[in-house]
């Protein structure tokens, strides 16, 4: 007999009789009853619950963020309630190309996000957790870029700066490329793998959502896109990021030489 916690004793003979193989057999010293507990089963249940909780937490976080972005775009002005487009919310807002909404600042944000993504991926490689996430971000950017390139040429929608009519689709390729927003899609795709990977452990990571939210508002204010253009761009970017985050081996990384896989930091 072997002493066990909680006033119980364990019998090797009883363990054999009950099958062994990960099964913990205990005898309660007070009642004399056999108590069985599968260690492996408990561990599996614990791990499964942890994974499920993480998934639920991430989904809830994104639902909250997406809801905020939708409200921001739809309720930006009273005119949203008497507008057009697929959702009835598209309208020109008062043009504003000043301050933080300047077009050159918008472009700097997009370039900065993509540059950080590429630099981080090359430096870290794909062996660390953050390095893999950087490469997933690159995958997401490639997927989102290809998707918006095709969708723009399919829907051929006129921009607000071209025609003050949000219902002008299929106007001819390739001068009408408003739907969906490529820049919003690119930024969203870049940050989504990081939010999915780290949001559960570090809620402050959700602050990255400020970047696509800013660009969504900025593109509408400078008449580069309609409201549904930026919402569609966000959706495309999020789906690309979600898909890339599911990949065990990032697609772009898989075709890179070994020196890139381990990261440039190994050379220093």
Record the SSE blueprint.
Layout: E1 2-4, E2 8-10, H1 12-17, E3 23-28, E4 34-38, H2 39-74, H3 103-124, H4 129-155, H5 182-198, H6 210-221, H7 227-246, H8 251-254, H9 258-262
Antiparallel strand pairs: 1-2, 2-3, 3-4
Helix pairs in contact: 3-4, 3-5, 4-5, 4-7, 5-6, 5-7, 6-7
Structure description:
The chain has 268 residues and is an alpha+beta fold. It is 56% helix and 6% strand. It has a 4-stranded antiparallel sheet with strand order 1-2-3-4. Helix 4 packs antiparallel against helix 5, helix 4 packs across helix 7 and helix 6 packs antiparallel against helix 7. The N terminus is likely disordered.
Which properties best describe this structure?
4 strands, 9 helices, 268 residues, four-stranded antiparallel sheet, single chain, disordered N terminus, alpha+beta
Relative helix content: 55-70%
Describe the strand arrangement of the main beta sheet, using strand numbers: 1-2-3-4
Give the strand tally: 4
Distance between the termini: 58 Å
Report the biggest beta sheet as strand number plus sense, adding barrel if it closes. 4 strands, antiparallel
Number of helical regions: 9
Rg over alpha carbons: 26 Å
Q: What string gives the helices and strands in order? A: EEHEEHHHHHHHH
What is the 3D form? elongated
Low-confidence stretches: 1-25, 35-48
Which structural category fits the helices and strands?
alpha+beta
Mean pLDDT: 80
Share in β-strands: 5-15%
